[in-house]
Design a protein that fits this description.
The complex is a heterodimer of chains A (about 375) and B (about 400).
Chain A: E1 17-22, H1 23-39, E2 50-55, H2 58-64, E3 69-71, H3 82-91, H4 93-100, E4 105-111, H5 115-130, E5 134-141, H6 148-164, E6 167-172, H7 186-209, H8 218-228, E7 231-240, H9 244-253, H10 262-266, E8 269-276, H11 282-294, E9 301-308, E10 315-324, E11 364-365, E12 368-369, H12 374-377
Parallel strand pairs in A: 1-2, 1-4, 2-3, 4-5, 5-6, 6-7, 8-9
Antiparallel strand pairs in A: 7-10, 8-10, 11-12
Helix pairs in contact in A: 1-2, 1-5, 1-7, 3-5, 4-5, 5-6, 9-11
Chain B: E1 2-10, E2 14-23, E3 28-37, E4 41-42, E5 45-46, H1 49-67, E6 73-78, E7 84-93, H2 102-113, E8 121-133, E9 136-139, E10 149-160, H3 161-173, E11 177-183, H4 184-192, H5 195-200, E12 202-207, E13 212-218, E14 221-228, H6 232-243, H7 247-257, E15 270-273, E16 281-284, H8 285-309, E17 320-323, H9 332-340, E18 344-346, E19 352-354, H10 369-385
Parallel strand pairs in B: 1-6, 3-19, 6-11, 12-17, 17-18
Antiparallel strand pairs in B: 1-2, 2-3, 4-5, 7-10, 8-9, 8-10, 12-13, 13-14, 15-16
Helix pairs in contact in B: 1-3, 4-10, 6-7, 6-8, 8-9
The chains are: A alpha/beta (about 375), B alpha/beta (about 400).
């Protein structure tokens, strides 16, 4: 275990960062983050990042109330069509190149499974990389109840993003189920997911931007995700009162988003962010680290940061980013577990030989061309010999 | 009393003609079976009439030679036309003294058939499911009952006219007259399910080379049916694409080695093609199974989702039965069990007999379900039209019910 004692002086973000929300989930999260910044009366509240909300649905874009909005396509959304999302993004490439221009770090937030998230985000990430920016993606994975088709699309999209970006932080909605009430309706579940996501984003933002006793910056997050060789998962908890340290530690170690702690125990790299009041003590920080380290592998790599905020007396906030080898969840119908796996090969749908069925109508079901091999459409990686 | 019948199926992989003696109580005694590798048919559709015609003639000739009779009149089984299904409900008031007559029944059937379908399509089957007399459900034969309102649930199947006409032309040009025609999916149900299984609820899936057809039964009548234009040839094509093989090579390894399930934990093995050639090809078994599993699972899930939309999955207490060539795929039963979450068996045509020379192999039996089912359909239609007629289960003939 190592502490990062590097800077004694607060070190704000050395380079400019752009936060981009793509699609409904992304734009909503962006809106929430911005609202948080505006609502906060704290004069020391971190300056908001430059942000950009991008969507194909002009109504959803306006509803998000994100400060800078950019609509791609004709404004009427993609209807879940990934290829359409991709096309809209490509059309807007030139404009986006201008907008992405001077940023060194671009953090994308998007919900996967839909048309804009799945289709446009890879295009943006690619663009950002071409311009020399470091790219991180926070990808929200859909609930199982949102349907199998969506889940499969999300898994494929996630794999593509893992390949294209410098790192992916995963936010698996389905894990929230264990903390939602039994009879939570779909709308409420989705709203809860939105709020968890916004919450996590806000805390991460605080951590990365607050001048702290021990500093975390974007480079640490970058190093973490690169250590991950997959994706990371984010969760935050808060506790107050005398026994807030053990409470917070227990809460984070059993958090639903970490699959009740199994993710932490298997993680290869962990980032611990602590936000406390001026009354925070060194032994408390040490205790947090020790207890978390005890549940981890012995060779896990740690990144740590501690921030003090006035007004956080008697309170503690813990944010953890844990690396995770993302395995696509088996289909709820338990169909053999072989159909979806990690993908590292990009989809080449246009190259799929379809002349075998020449002379017949394309078999199209639910907008998908079924004459194209299933393994290609699902992004299944073939290992060769 | 028995009838001599000939049924014909112009499949995407094989054209088959079956000649058999069909007794009044449904015993089918095979006299001749003619099979010919299919050409000019893709996804059950005719794309090269001349080639298809030759195949039909060959199959008929072989069957005729075996049975030692001439077969110029056939009953045609088909899956072409992009078959779709619609569940209809209609109601008519009961006239006069409130006794339901045959006319009343015909009226309500006509009403139920009045479904709006695109102009290029026509109704191929209208299958009455259950009648309701003054709200009382589950009535099988309402003729003679007293009531003020008669309602009917009906399953209507429709297909694209031109595509079906193309098939009809192919058969006619090959010197055979078509006496009747029926959708293969419906026929399978008649062949492999017992009366009890039809009552309890069952699904029959015909895994063909060109299409995947299905019929579900509940309460003794078909509850739903359909045809997905994806079949065994899609699996072969996927394998060819994924492993960089020719279609023929892909077909060969599919038949010999491919499994519908994948054991990811198993160490990847390989198989060798063209062992005797100068440069034998080695392919990864794991990749082969990943490809096969993906396609088979997807296709089965499409059927499952269609049934789920109509709340049929809960009404399959007798389970699922597989027919067609796809039944011979390794582990297909296991995959289907996972997809449908119920018992899955191979569907074998019931009441089938044959002389020693004509006896089909066990592997062939599931592929004969459509042809056998067609014969059962003909028998039931004829019985229904007989003077004593009426009552019991209604079979499905072309555009009649």
């Amino acid at each position: 275990m190592k502490f990062d004692h590097a800077q004694l002086f607060p070190n704000g973000l050395g380079c400019r960062m752009l936060l981009v929300g793509v699609g409904s989930a992304g734009c909503k999260a962006l809106g929430a983050l911005v609202r948080h910044g505006i609502d906060s009366n704290d004069p020391d509240a971190p300056t908001l990042p430059d942000s950009l909300a991008i969507h194909t649905d002009v109504q959803a874009l306006e509803a998000s109330k994100a400060p800078r909005q950019f609509c791609i396509g004709d404004g009427f959304s993609t209807g879940g069509d990934v290829m359409k999302g991709k096309a809209c993004a490509e059309e807007a490439s030139d404009k986006l190149r201008e907008m992405f221009g001077s940023y060194r770090l671009i953090f994308f937030v998007t919900g996967l499974g839909g048309g804009t998230g799945n289709g446009a985000t890879p295009v943006f990430v690619q663009l950002a990389r071409e311009m020399g920016a470091f790219t991180l993606v926070m990808a929200v994975m859909p609930f199982h109840f949102e349907g199998e088709r969506k889940r499969l699309k999300a898994d494929t999209g996630l794999a593509t993003l893992c390949e294209l970006s410098d790192g992916v932080v995963c936010f698996p909605n389905q894990r929230l189920f264990s903390i939602l009430e039994q009879d939570t309706g779909m709308v409420e579940a989705l709203a809860a997911a939105d709020s968890f996501l916004a919450d996590g984003l806000v805390r991460l933002w605080h951590l990365l931007n607050e001048p702290g006793v021990m500093n975390l910056d974007f480079a640490d997050v970058a190093a973490l995700v690169q250590h991950s060789n997959g994706t990371c998962t984010l969760a935050s908890v808060e506790a107050s009162g005398e026994d807030r340290i053990p409470k917070a530690v227990e809460a984070i170690l059993t958090d639903a988003l970490f699959d009740r702690g199994t993710i932490i125990s298997k993680a290869r790299a962990i980032l611990i962010g602590i936000i406390g009041g001026p009354d925070i003590r060194l032994h408390e920080i040490e205790r947090i680290h020790t207890e978390i380290a005890d549940t981890c592998q012995s060779d896990v790599v740690f990144f740590s940061g501690v921030t003090m905020l006035p007004g956080m007396e008697d309170q503690i906030s813990l944010t953890l980013l844990a690396s995770e080898m993302w395995i696509a969840a088996p289909a709820p119908v338990d169909a053999g577990g072989g159909a979806t796996g990690l993908v590292q090969e990009s989809l080449q749908l246009q190259d799929a030989p379809t002349n075998e069925f020449l002379g017949t109508d394309q078999t199209k079901i639910d907008g998908e061309n079924l004459d194209i091999p299933t393994y290609l459409r699902r992004g299944i990686k073939l290992g060769g010999l | 009393m028995s009838d001599l019948l000939v049924s014909l199926e112009v499949g995407t992989h094989t054209v088959r003609a079956l000649i058999a003696d069909v007794s009044d109580d449904g015993e089918i005694h095979i006299l001749g079976l003619g099979q010919c590798e299919s050409h000019g048919i893709k996804k059950a559709e005719v794309i090269d009439p001349a080639a298809a015609q030759t195949c039909v003639q060959t199959a008929l000739t072989i069957a005729e030679d075996q049975a030692n009779i001439v077969a110029n009149e056939v009953h045609l089984v088909y899956s072409c036309g992009g078959i779709g299904a619609s569940l209809q409900h209609a109601s008519v008031p009961v006239m006069f003294n409130g006794v339901i007559s045959e006319d009343t029944v015909e009226d309500v059937k006509d009403n139920a058939r009045a479904v709006s379908i695109p102009v290029e399509r026509e109704i191929i089957h209208s299958v009455p499911q259950h009648f309701y007399v003054d709200g009382q459900p589950g009535v099988i034969n309402p003729v003679g009952m007293v009531g003020s309102k008669l309602e009917l649930d009906m399953l209507v199947l429709h297909g694209e006219t031109t595509r079906m006409q193309n098939l009809v032309r192919v058969v006619n040009e090959s010197r055979a007259d078509i006496l009747s025609a029926a959708f293969g999916g419906l026929c399978c149900g008649l062949a492999v399910l017992s009366e009890e299984q039809r009552k309890r609820g069952a699904l029959v899936l015909d895994l063909g080379a060109g299409t995947t057809d299905f019929v579900s039964y509940s309460g003794g009548v078909p509850s739903y049916a359909g045809s997905i234009p994806v079949g065994g040839q899609h699996v072969t094509h996927d394998i060819a694409a994924g492993l960089n093989l020719s279609f023929e090579q892909a077909e060969e390894i599919k038949l010999k080695y491919a499994s519908c399930t994948v054991d990811l934990a198993e160490r990847a093995g390989s198989v060798t093609l063209d062992e005797d050639a100068l440069k034998p090809r080695k392919v990864s078994l794991r990749d082969l199974n990943l490809i096969t599993n993906a396609r088979m699972e997807e296709t089965l899930m499409i059927v499952r989702n269609r049934l789920a939309e109509h709340n049929i999955l809960q009404r399959l207490s007798a389970g699922v039965f597989l027919t067609g060539g796809g039944t011979n795929m390794k582990d297909v039963l296991e995959l289907a069990e996972r997809v449908f979450k119920t018992r899955v068996q191979v569907g074998l045509p019931l009441n089938l007999t044959a002389g020693e020379e004509q006896l089909p192999s066990e592997a062939e039996l599931p592929e004969l379900a459509t042809l056998v089912g067609m014969m059962q359909n003909v028998r039931l239609e004829r019985r229904r039209k007989a003077p004593s007629g009426g009552g019991g289960f209604w079979p499905f003939g072309r555009r009649s019910a």
